[in-house]
Amino acid sequence: MSPRRFRSVVSAVLLSAVVVAGAAQSQTLSQAPQLRPPDVIYIPTPAGLVEAMLTLARVGPNDVVYDLGSGDGRIPIAAVQTFNARSSIGVDIDPKRIREANSNLKRAKVGDRVRFLNQDLFTTPIGEATVVTLYLVQSLNERLMPKLQKELKPGSRVVSQTFSMGSQWPADQAIQFEGHNVYLWLIK
Questions:
Q1: Residue 124 has what DSSP assignment?
Q2: DSSP-assigned beta bridge partners for residue 114
């Protein structure tokens, strides 16, 4: 086979491989499970309220903090940066929020103690958490209640700003901070 013919055959084989790989990737992407739309609109928690929530939960060096619906990542980052939590995980269903949180994480320079997961907060395992933070709405808190009570170990704390768990699970403690209610539940 001449060198020219050899190059033509190689080029044809490579082009075929690229087309097949592209089709396979396209098929894989179209078959990948799509996360559902977010349950609530994103409203950032003011810095002072973040501090009030983490203070009420008594976050410290032995804690693993999970923020369900973590938005731009300010609570998980503050848990490690300001309260010296051992680690922190932010869970958000919106990929845009995860990108923003990861960008904020790079600027915060807290190393690998904070991670963000683009997942559904109702299906993400939370059993390693010692503290769970929430800023959802009451109906979502109530839907999460069985998961929190089942997966979290005794002594774990759940803190929510603005919204309670309803009358089925009264808060162990509640405070007001700059016009916002902050609720704390202890897992027994």
A1: S
A2: 88
Angle 95-108/74-81 helices, nearest 10 degrees? 20
* Structure-block tokens of residue 45: 């928690």
Q: What is the end-to-end Cα distance of the chain in Å, rounded? A: 78
Helix (H, G, I), strand (E, B) or coil at 86: coil
- Global pTM value: 0.80
Domain boundaries, the chain: 1-32, 47-186
Q: What dotted CATH number matches 47-186?
A: 3.40.50.150
Q: Which residues pair with 9 in a beta bridge?
A: none
* Residue-wise burial string across 14-27, b where 16 or more C-beta atoms lie within 10 A, e elsewhere: eeeeeeeeeeeeee
Taking only the tens place, the pLDDT of each residue in 32-86 is 345 787 788 888 899 999 999 999 999 999 999 999 999 999 999 999 999 999 9
Separation of alpha carbons 103 and 56, rounded Å: 27
